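SUBJECT: protein chain
CONTENTS: sequence, structure tokens:
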Amino acid sequence: MTAAALTPMDIGHARYVALIDPGTAFWVLVDKTRVSDTLAGGPLLDAYREKAGDFSRELHALRFELQPAAVDVNPTERCNLDCTYCYLPGKMRRDGSHMPEDKLLAALDKLRRYFATVMPEGRRPRIIFHGSEPLLNRHAVFAAIEAFGDDFVFGLQTSGTLLNRSAIDFLTAREVSVGLSLDGPEAAITDSTRRTWSGRSVHERVLAAMDNLRGYDAWSVITTCTTENLTHLTRMAELFHAREVPTCMLNTVRCTLPGARGVKPADPDMARAFIAILAPSARRLMCDISPCGGGRAFFALAADGDLYPYSEFIGLPRLRHPPLLRLLRGAGALRLPPDRRRYRRRLPVGQLGRWNGHGFQLCAPLTGTAWMRPSHNGKETS
């Protein structure tokens, strides 16, 4: 690896430029006054030369060598919110049905037996209860966590509006990771895209859930970046820092349905927000790698038992696949959705690196969503 492998890229920041290597999907932020010296040699290039081979191999594995190790389980079709950019059909979220508890337990038992045939010894697959809003079917979800706690690593992605003290106590006692969503540093911004069906604000309820989770190390908050909040992301970072959020994630809008397309920022604006305003590190957002991780690194189980490559596709008939209990009947093999072949020859979406406020930090070559791990000593770190 030579110094020329890292190429300067102007990111529109007054102080920093990015040095990138698209071949490994790596980038790092460097002070503009130090670019020439950095490219001439030194600790950054030495460290990068040492890591570049690993980065390249990992990127190849992410593209072509994945086996499913996680499932997004949607235990209900319903949601108590009507978010502008939601990728699930409105009728399903308003009038849909819950997955019965016995069906959910049977599905997880099938998944347990399937993963036993493909997962390395000593590793547990991950089950993420996803949405719509999984806590609307709380009894079934908690029964599943209780029954299969030794077989899976569990996570729960929720709006936070139903996350009361008893739910938090149950989840934290069983080391379930918890993800919340908050789109603004103040109610008016959050409410522009996230609100109840009757138009009521959810901002304060999410802040209350964040306060109740403070001190637990396995929780995170997602901010979906829209035209309504893009200029307020620095304030979001300050809010997360003040409330001691362990991990904050900045998601792009998924343009599956028309409502999302109306609040999606322009790509150049999004890039500037990710790179210039914040100090991101990397995240394995498997839907943004090339080829798509849906159906390869994970798949989704809908509340009616059907399988999809990814939760975003629930409600799209052409991407529906046979019900889990029929697909996994008997043999351990799982027929992955053939749709994934269309992604085989796409190029990487973007490049992410790390910056801790003082210098670079090397990271794995990953793409898609920025995330931050705020420290609580007055400085942001990745």
Remarks:
- The two ends are 25 Å apart (CA to CA).
- The chain has twelve helices and 15 strands.
- Confidence is low (pLDDT under 50) at residues 276-288, 329-382.
- The CA atoms of residues 124 and 152 lie 5 Å apart.
